[in-house]
Design goal:
5-stranded mixed β-barrel, about 90 residues, OB fold (Dihydrolipoamide Acetyltransferase, E2P), alpha+beta
Length: about 90
Amino acid sequence: MKKLFFLVLVLVLASCAQQHCSHGVPVKMRNLNGLDGCGWVLELTDGSRLEPINLNTYNLNLVEGKKIYVTYEDFPGASICMVGKIVKITSVCE
């Protein structure tokens, strides 16, 4: 009985995590540390880039080319890097 309860609990939690990412957009992580004022950016499937202001608040393993899903909102401001739109990440799923 305990095994069945644990299995159901794991399935419920996994399905909630999938629903949480259902509105996320696919991106690839790009390391632009070699460019002045740049760091990690997110590349959309159309090749445009997002410059997240809060990527370090998420427990992510930063790996070049890693595919993740994010939701975000526009953030007013400018950056030194100037390779993409400034955004605030609202959720991340790996």
